[in-house]
Amino acid sequence: LFLLDTIPCLLSPWSEWSDCSVTCGKGMRTRQRMLKSAAELGDCNEELEQAEKCMLPECPIDCELTEWSQWSECNTSCGKGHMIRTRMIKIEPQFGGTACPETVQRTKCRVRKCLRGPGMEKRRWKEAR
């Protein structure tokens, strides 16, 4: 009866490490082994599972942008012109994340017709000379 206390744990070999718990970045992996000796033979305090950290390549980070600004005023006071709106990059793409789309958009605008007095063009042309 006293000999039973001295029987060592009979353990299976460790399994292979599991895959990392994530597909990118920091995760955990585990491995197990099993108790082969009968439990009646006394307590076995050996660990049956181990875990360790694992690191895979960094996860892709996609570009992130703010909302569009309001459209600017038309850049002319009469006739055809354009206005723009912008948005800012909040997060630059990294590790193969999606690239940033356009951050500036232009659109045409038209303010009231420009009034030209008779002879305005000729006068300007003389001044330019």
From TrEMBL:
Taxonomic superkingdom: Eukaryota
The name of this protein is SPON1 protein
User: Which GO CC annotations does the UniProt entry carry?
Assistant: extracellular matrix
**Signal sequence, renumbered to the chain:** none
Keyword annotations for this protein, in alphabetical order, are: Disulfide bond, Glycoprotein, Signal
Q: Where are the transmembrane segments?
A: none
The cross-references to InterPro entries, in alphabetical order and at most eight, read: Spondin/Thrombospondin_T1, TSP1_rpt, TSP1_rpt_sf, TSP1_spondin_dom
Please state every residue range assigned to the domain named Spondin-like TSP1. 63-114
Q: Which PANTHER family match?
A: SPONDIN (PTHR11311), SPONDIN-1 (PTHR11311:SF16)
A Gene Ontology biological process noted in the UniProt record is: cell adhesion
Q: Which organism is this protein's natural source?
A: Rostratula benghalensis (greater painted-snipe)
